[in-house]
Write a structure and sequence with these properties.
Blueprint (H helix, E strand, L loop, with lengths): L1 H5 L14 H12 L5 E5 L8 E7 L2 E7 L5 E5 L14 E3 L4 E3 L6 E3 L4 E3 L27 E5 L2 E5 L7 H5 L1 H10 L4 E11 L3 H9 L4 H4 L2 H4 L9 E5 L6 E6 L7 H8 L29 E8 L3 E6 L2 E11 L2 E11 L4 H10 L11 H13 L20 E2 L7 H14 L2 H4 L2
């Protein structure tokens, strides 16, 4: 493990980091249970007393709850008795505010406090817990909870800085931009990839591949490198945001072929290729003309606005070579029916089978397969240089944010003193 990490740098990563079980276990400790904030839910999913959502921080099962006073709480979904899952459903409402382990009926409240143990005093003087057994000492492991504009984050570590400090001013700006008013959830999709979680984290920060792998983007003018665009990376490198403005004019597909200096196969024309182009429609709803925002927040969430699709993509680490991506689609609470129908139609662009994102899962799996069995092989992440700059314009011609991810990752895995300025 130490050899692979020591040999890695932000612009050249030893491929063993995608395959080493010891590194995967260390990531759970140093990153997901370390001094960071991990996105787990939208407050809109926890709409009222008793609401809950069970999910994961890294590979650890957790539950987020809202108590009778409206406060949010979170705890590890592991009974203090035998370690069984206490909550077995993905989301719902505990009408009596209690969570009961099915195995031996140990009962907890929304805050994770142990409230009841069957046969605690035994029966007719036989059995039961010791007299000094104290319910308060056997609650569920509680986590820190913080929110920003309706996004819910958890942390295991008391040393994690305040959430807004962790995210930085620029990232908070884009979060506030999207969550400028109450939202409501429109639905979910789940995508399983046979690849390491970091390959998807790189993918979401890789503007270079956007117009090359996803030909739907340039074919229909959603994104081309010649459009006005920018990429911002926070100081440490953890987080980044890509923005692409609505094109000022509709260039022909042939112009993109000239930009990319690549022969494109399978596509020959523009929007007339679609029988129903309404799926492409973009209704400007922000005052900045940004039609595409891809914001990757370390370690495991992407906030996106592509045309009028709004979604979070939560990365769940199922194993060293198994990753689940949970898409949560949302709109605004004050959307009228026509706008809601438009957003749902726009959702066809994204998700596991989306016109412009289905290739990402395949790319993750190709990299996982291609880097198997390597010894000393390193990636070459030097498009646009080998360092990290706060901002690039336009995107698509560099790998700045990918290097940022690795800088942040290595700062936690190798020790901050080795990487941080």
């Amino acid at each position: 493990m130490k050899d692979a990490l020591a040999a890695s740098a932000p612009q050249a990563v030893d491929a063993r980091v995608y395959h080493d079980l010891e590194i995967f276990a260390e990531e759970q400790l140093r990153i997901f249970r370390g001094p960071v904030w991990v996105y787990v839910a939208l407050e809109a999913e926890l709409d009222g007393p008793g609401a809950f959502k069970s999910t994961f921080v890294g590979d650890t099962p957790v539950v987020v709850t809202r108590d009778g006073d409206g406060a949010l709480h979170a705890w590890v979904n592991r009974c203090a008795h035998k370690g069984a899952l206490v909550c077995r459903t993905p989301r719902g409402r505990a009408t009596d505010g209690s969570f009961v382990c099915v195995y031996h009926q140990w009962a907890y409240d929304a805050q994770g406090n142990l409230r009841g143990v069957p046969f605690r005093r035994g029966l007719k003087g036989i059995g039961g817990m010791a007299q000094e057994f104290d319910l308060t000492q056997h609650g569920l492991q509680k986590l820190r909870v913080a929110t920003l504009c309706g996004m819910v984050f958890l942390s295991f570590d008391e040393k994690a800085p305040p959430l807004e400090q962790f995210l930085g001013e620029a990232m908070c700006h884009y979060i506030r931009r999207v969550f400028n008013r109450p939202v409501r959830v429109l639905g979910y999709a789940r995508q399983n990839m046979r690849g390491n979680w970091k390959l998807y984290s790189e993918n979401s920060r890789d503007g270079y591949h956007g117009g090359l792998l996803h030909l739907f983007y340039p074919t229909f003018g959603i994104y081309r490198p010649s459009q006005e665009s920018a990429g911002e990376v926070d100081e440490v490198g953890f987080h980044n945001a890509f923005t692409v403005s609505k094109p000022s004019q509709q260039d022909g597909y042939e112009s993109y072929q000239r930009e990319a200096n690549r022969e494109m196969s399978g596509a020959t024309a523009g929007a007339e290729m679609l029988h129903d182009p309404s799926v492409l429609a973009f209704r400007p709803e922000f005052d900045d003309n940004i039609a595409l925002l891809i914001q990757s927040l370390f370690p495991s969430v992407v906030l996106q606005q592509i045309q009028n699709t709004l979604a979070t993509r939560q990365i769940v680490t199922r194993g060293v070579d198994e990753t689940e991506l949970v898409w949560t689609y949302f709109g605004y609470a004050d959307d009228d029916e026509a706008m809601t129908r438009h957003r749902i139609r726009n959702i066809n662009l994204v998700g596991p089978a989306g016109y412009i994102s289905m290739e990402d899962g395949e790319a993750v799996e190709l990299c996982q397969q291609g880097t198997a069995g390597t010894e000393g092989w390193k990636s070459f992440v030097e498009m646009g240089g080998d360092g990290l700059v706060p901002r690039v314009e336009p995107i698509g011609l560099d790998e700045n944010a990918v290097r940022g991810f690795w800088k942040g990752y290595l700062s936690l895995m190798k020790g901050a003193a080795e990487v941080l300025p």
